[in-house]
Amino acid sequence: MHITQLNRECLLHLFSFLDKNSRKNLAKTCHKLQEVFQDPLLWSWLNFYSPVELEKNNFLLGPALKHLSICWYSERVKVCNIEDWMKNSFQKDFCKKHENTVSDFLLDVCNRCPNLLSLTLSGCGHITDNCILQLLKNCPNLKSLKLENCVRITDHTLEAVTLHGVSLQTLHVDFCRNVTQAGLERVREKRPSVMLRAERSANMIPDSKPEKKLMLEKASRRLVQL
């Protein structure tokens, strides 16, 4: 029996075991398998392991998407999460290559995936508060928002949660060093039903601006002399 003789339900089941690249390659073999590849039922979950994957044409983005995860674990994450003034020219050039990749992708999600239920972002150093604000506005069914090691996330995201996270049940802002204890307290006050977690966030010292850093160093030297 040839694979194309299977009914659509069986083909969808087979496709579900394949990664995005394998699905795309199989879909190229015939028209029937291409139709299966384009079936929204196949794309309710999307997992990405680097921003580069977002640029591949090997997945379908649409209203069927319920769960999205972009988790980038590598040494490059550390570079992307360094404040711009601390980066050398090589690091700046590297980060610039994909500076808008994730934010542009999330904008597309805002426009095309109104039924999103969960979003996980880890190591996405270029994501801003505005990205999360737009997503909360356009995906009113979002129940779980997990952010980890996203350096540009601040209390503005926490405020957006209190204003627009109408369905939110879980909020993680782990290793997001620029959120504050005051911002977390406002979420607890205004959204007491939200399960809030902020490991190594509000207690971490945000990166200082160069002039502030210099002042702190001088103050430390004076204390040592005393």
TrEMBL record:
Domain of life (superkingdom): Eukaryota
GO cellular component labels: SCF ubiquitin ligase complex
Keyword set includes Hydrolase: no
Coiled coil region boundaries: none
Any one GO biological process: SCF-dependent proteasomal ubiquitin-dependent protein catabolic process
InterPro entries attached to this UniProt entry: F-box-like_dom_sf, F-box_dom, Leu-rich_rpt_Cys-con_subtyp, LRR_dom_sf
Pfam families: F-box-like
Protein keywords: Leucine-rich repeat, Ubl conjugation pathway
Sequence ranges assigned to domain F-box in this UniProt record: 9-47
PANTHER family the UniProt entry points to: GH16156P (PTHR13318:SF247), PARTNER OF PAIRED, ISOFORM B-RELATED (PTHR13318)
Protein name: FXL22 protein
Gene of this entry: Fbxl22
